[in-house]
C-alpha cells in the first residue's frame, strides 16, 4: 500500500519535474501523470511491452498505475503486479488502482462468451442473472466482492490502494436510477468492510458518461447522490468516516464536459463534476487524457498555443492535468517508447486557473 513516508521520499528522489507535478492524495503525494493499461491486444507480446513500460515509468517519477480486471482479459492486472514487483522501487511508493464491474474473460476471449459467463459466474452463484446488465456487467455486492478477490490474486498485492466500481451507469440500461443508487450503497458498504479488513485503502467510482452528461441523459448519475450513498454506507458499516475517495472520468481537449456541463447540485446551485468533486474533497483521475492516442496527432491551434510542451502529446497531457481539481491524468503507455515523452510532459507547468478558463471563452 502506498504510504505517506514512501511517497514523499519518492517525490524528493524525483525533483526534476515542474512544481505542481506531484499532488496530494490523502496523506500521500502522487504524480499528476499516471499509467493507463486499457489499450492493446491480449497477447504475450503486449504483456511484455506493458511490463517494460510500467517498470520504466515507475523508475522515472510516475507512481500512479491504473488498471481493471476486464482490461485485456485480466492480463493488464497481472502485468501491473509483475511490474510493481520488478521495478527498482518500494511497493509503498506506488498508488495502484483497479476496477470491478464488467465480467472479465480469463487470458483470452472464449469461443462462447455467453456460456463462459453462465458457467463461471451464474451457475456457481457468484452473480444472479437478474443483476447482469447487457449480459456483461454487474455491481451487486457479492459480484464486486468476488472481483476484488480476483484482482488481489492477479496483482499479488496485499492491499489495493484505490478500488473503483466500474461504469455503474451501464446498469441504467436494465433498472432505474434509484435502483442503481441502492445497489451502489450496498456495494459501498461491503467495500467499507474490505477497507477494515485491509484489502483496499480507498474506493470510488470510475465512469465514462455518468458524471459528465446533463441530468436528462439516459446515462446520468448524480455525483452528490453517490457521495451521500457512500456516507450512508460508511455509517452502516460502522466506519468513522467514508473511504469513498475518488472518481475517474474522461477529460481531454475534445471531451471537456466534466468542466463545462453543470449537472450536479452543489450548495449554491448546479456545478460541473470537477467543481463539485473539488469542493467535496474528492480526488479526480482523468481517463482518455489523450483521446486514446488521437490527440498525439495535434490539438486545436488556439488551444495548443496556450500549452507548454515540445510535442502534441505533451501538450494534450498538460491540458488534462490543468483542469481544476484533477489529481492525476492517466495516459496509455503500452510500450517503453511512449514513456520518456509522457514523463517529460511533467517538466512543464500546466495552465494556471485563469489561462485554463480562457480556453473556454
UniProtKB/TrEMBL annotation:
Recorded coiled-coil stretches: 174-201
Residue intervals of the NADP-dependent oxidoreductase domain: 33-210
SUPFAM superfamilies referenced in this protein's UniProt entry, alphabetically: NAD(P)-linked oxidoreductase (SSF51430)
GO CC annotation: cytosol
Keywords, comma-separated and alphabetical: Coiled coil
Any GO molecular function: oxidoreductase activity
Signal sequence extent: none
Pfam families listed in its UniProt record: Aldo_ket_red
Name of the protein in question: Predicted oxidoreductase
Organism: Halomicrobium zhouii
